[in-house]
Write a structure and sequence with these properties.
Beta Polymerase, domain 2; DNA polymerase, domain 1; 17 strands; 575 residues; 5-stranded parallel sheet; 5 domains; 44% helix; alpha/beta; DNA-binding
Length: 575
DNA sequence: GCCGTTTTCGGCCCGACTGTTTTCAGTCG
């Protein structure tokens, strides 16, 4: 996989260009944009190049003739002349140093020019010896902030799971509402777009008492320390190890600000370009005409509507074609939480869940589910107390009895999460599986198997005729474990051929399939099941993470099986 | 260096905050 390596080189070239004489602003932007594209492109550039040559590379957004040539050069020779030349002049670890808050290319270079600081270790030593504060343009405060920045990095400054960050944001929002200092308050940024991980939290409020809001925030119990505070913006470090930006605007600007701070960046750039084409100017304070009159209303929708666009769900705002569809008034109606009727991936204390069948059923009914599928583990998962055939017969019988007791108030479906064995066989015998309403199947062992073997393994399981749903298909764990290596195109094709439903597992550390893979699967006509993979009653409420992931993959309600009523769903499983 | 319903040249988002400044460069989102 060349992508991360080349992305890093482009990033570094961008940093070095910032130090060169003359105006390289836009060249810098171009390198950074291409680096971002490479970081987020799943397909290896080597594969793209093999299939479509340099023209294929140039199809990548932000990659033109020049940068495509540099990618080609690196793949052929293992080096990039421009990078090597510049690196000789600036032998600095920009990537490492610039991860420190407040450090950009220019400061990094000053440190190198004056103190020969090349990397974070050098910087640490210089700080310890108080060499920074003596430098022109730096002071005592700079030295302190750098020290704090390094400490923050070392305590894990990476991106946090949405499932941890969003509840924290919601409790901060609740606190602000209770304070009565704010008119409106809401989440913005990547958390509002429900990205699987977030680098920080953005919260937007409107108030006539900005200063009091600032003071209030700085004293909240969630806050570890204030990083910066101005009249309308405050950045704080939260105790959970995440930064949080909170902005205060006038209520009249709230809609414009919410649009602006929700992003993402590329989406905003396009919307602003449309504003310019219409003779307007769009910023976080409003939509202004030539005379400077603010045309925006109090909400986001009025801004889009003024531009003759339809408003789209925040999850769509990633510049993946939603702007164009919105202009054409052809936005799809995506699946929403209220479409979901059941949950087809639920564990109980018969394997590794915390609660009984009845507890799970009652809780699920309380939060509005019409049915849930009980999917305890099969015998290979002995660490998860997986059951063998004999135990399953008894277990399935208990589900029947629970259904009798529940008397139709919620329906329990008989199922299992069956292991896909190393050879592609399933972990229970046919007779036992025949007793179930449907079956989940998933990979839990031999995760490092090679690509071809893994692909064959999964497809063989799909062809068994017993696999109703492919649960957490790639088996990745965010920030913990890479996805298993398989040819997703072939797997998705086999799923469609064998009527296998693909799961969108809503457990916040899985979110599997993810947005990109959902978009890919859709091209093969995939159908989905959005589940929680619950191991406790509380987990049943995680459905929103799965639904938002589906939205990020532009999933329509009609292709999600658990939007169906239970009778229709059972008919689907019989097919 | 990229890109195209201002299309092969001339744009490319722009406002907030900080530290070290005495008017602003650097960084961030």
């Amino acid at each position: 996989m060349y992508n991360p390596q080349i992305a890093k080189m482009f990033e570094e070239i961008a940093s070095m260009l910032e130090l060169e004489e003359g105006d390289h602003r836009f060249e810098v932007l171009a390198y950074r944009k291409a680096a971002l594209t490479l970081e987020t492109t799943q397909e290896d550039v080597a594969d793209i190049y093999r299939k479509e040559g340099i023209k294929g590379l140039m199809k990548l957004p932000g990659v033109g003739k020049g940068l495509a040539g540099k990618i080609e050069e690196f793949m052929a020779k293992g080096r990039m002349r421009k990078y090597d030349e510049m690196k000789r002049k600036y032998p600095i670890d920009f990537q490492g140093l610039m991860k420190i808050q407040g450090m950009g290319a220019k400061k990094a270079y000053k440190l190198y020019a004056n103190l020969r600081i090349k990397n974070v270790d050098d910087l640490k030593k210089a700080i310890a010896q108080h060499k920074i504060s003596g430098l022109e343009g730096f002071g005592k405060k700079s030295e302190e902030e750098m020290g704090k920045g390094i400490a923050m990095l070392e305590s894990g400054g990476g991106r946090m799971l949405l499932g941890l960050a969003l509840p924290e944001a919601e409790s901060i929002i609740a606190r602000l509402k209770e304070s009565r200092l704010v008119d409106r308050v809401t989440i913005a940024g990547s958390a509002r777009r429900m990205k699987e991980t977030v680098g920080d939290l953005d919260i937007l409020t409107s108030s006539r008492e900005a200063q009091r809001v600032m003071d209030f925030i700085s004293k909240m119990p969630e806050v570890e320390r204030v990083i910066l505070m101005g009249p309308t913006k405050i950045t704080v470090r939260l105790k959970i190890g995440l930064n949080c930006d909170i902005r205060v605007v006038d209520d009249a600007s709230f809609g414009a600000a919410l649009q602006y701070f929700t992003g993402n960046k590329d989406h905003n750039v396009k919307v602003r370009q449309i504003a310019i084409k219409n003779g307007y100017k769009l910023n976080e304070y409003g939509l202004f005409d030539k005379r400077g009159k603010n045309l925006a209303g109090p909400d986001e929708e009025s801004i889009y509507n003024r531009l003759d666009m339809d408003i789209m769900d925040p999850e769509m705002r990633e510049d993946r074609g939603e702007v164009e569809l919105s202009l054409a008034h052809k936005l799809p109606r995506l699946v929403g939480l209220s479409d979901i009727r059941g949950d087809l991936h639920v564990h109980t204390n018969h394997s590794d869940g915390a609660h009984s069948i009845m507890d799970m059923a009652n809780y699920a009914r309380k939060i509005g589910r019409q049915y849930i599928g009980i999917t305890d583990h099969s015998k290979s998962e002995y660490v998860a107390h997986g059951m063998d055939e004999k135990k399953f017969v008894k277990h399935l019988d208990e589900i029947d009895k629970a259904n009798d007791k529940l008397d139709g108030s919620i329906r329990l479906l008989k199922s299992a999460e069956v292991d896909i064995l190393k050879d592609g066989g399933l972990d229970l015998d046919d007779k036992t599986m025949d007793m179930m309403d449907y079956r989940l199947a998933s990979v839990h062992t031999s995760l490092r198997m090679g690509r071809q073997e893994m692909t064959k393994r999964v497809i063989k399981a799909m062809e068994s005729g017993y696999m109703s749903i492919f649960a957490h298909p790639t088996d990745r764990k965010i920030n913990e474990r890479s996805p298993i290596d398989m040819d997703l195109d072939k797997v998705f094709e086999a799923a469609a051929d064998n009527n296998v439903i693909l799961e969108i597992d809503g457990a916040p550390d899985r979110l599997d399939l993810n947005d990109e893979n959902i978009l890919k699967a859709k091209r093969y006509g995939a159908r989905f099941s959005i589940d929680t993979d619950s191991h406790s009653m509380q987990n049943l409420t995680l459905m929103r993470y799965g639904v938002s992931t589906a939205k990020r993959g532009w999933v329509l309600p009609g292709s999600v099986v658990n939007t169906l009523g239970v009778e229709r769903l059972l008919k689907e499983f019989k097919k």
